[in-house]
Give the backbone structure.
Amino acid sequence: MTSDTGLPVRHITSTCHYIEQMAGGTWNTPTIDGALVFGEHAGARWVQQYVPQTRFVRDWKQDYAYRDLLQFPCMIHIPYNCSVMSFFEHYWLNIPLFVPSKQLLAELMEKKLALSQISFKWDHSGAALKPADMSRGDPNLRADMPKWFDLYDFYTLPHVTTFDSPEHLLSLLQKADFRGISARMAETNKQRYAACQQAWADAVEKVKAYGQR
């Protein structure tokens, strides 16, 4: 991967491990029935129409503590952008996560139920920022956005469950092994944290070496 400067760059994923201390621990024993929905307001309320006992976070509590999130068996994310910090925070807390499949995300975008903040215009036209690599098209234009979906945060981490429709989501929620999913996420987080530490250590060493030239 290269930047607009032509220099090679390395992507280092976010861990958001600070959230564990702020929440007083990670996911273990949920006490509330039903999923908590995050993300696009219209999309979240769309989910609520089809999936019983779901709560949209903005309706549930205006001012919640991070530890409150651990009460739910899982989270459903309806993305409003390609990268959302709360997604990484919830992942670090080992909360089982459900997101629309790439095909469903494209459908929700067309219905104005997802990805509203990719561009300041709902039709995602006339975007000023252009990536150095345009082989996938313009990531800010609606026609090209699906070509970039596989790089969106929600599809780059393992053990995140995707659903193709509200009916599919309801079925998955009824059958999911939440504890198993959470345990696998916890193991992945250990590996991610170690890899991030090493990546940053390597980056610092390269900066030091460059300064000594």
Strands lie at 36-39, 55-56, 75-78, 97-100, 161-163. The first helix runs from residue 18 to 23.
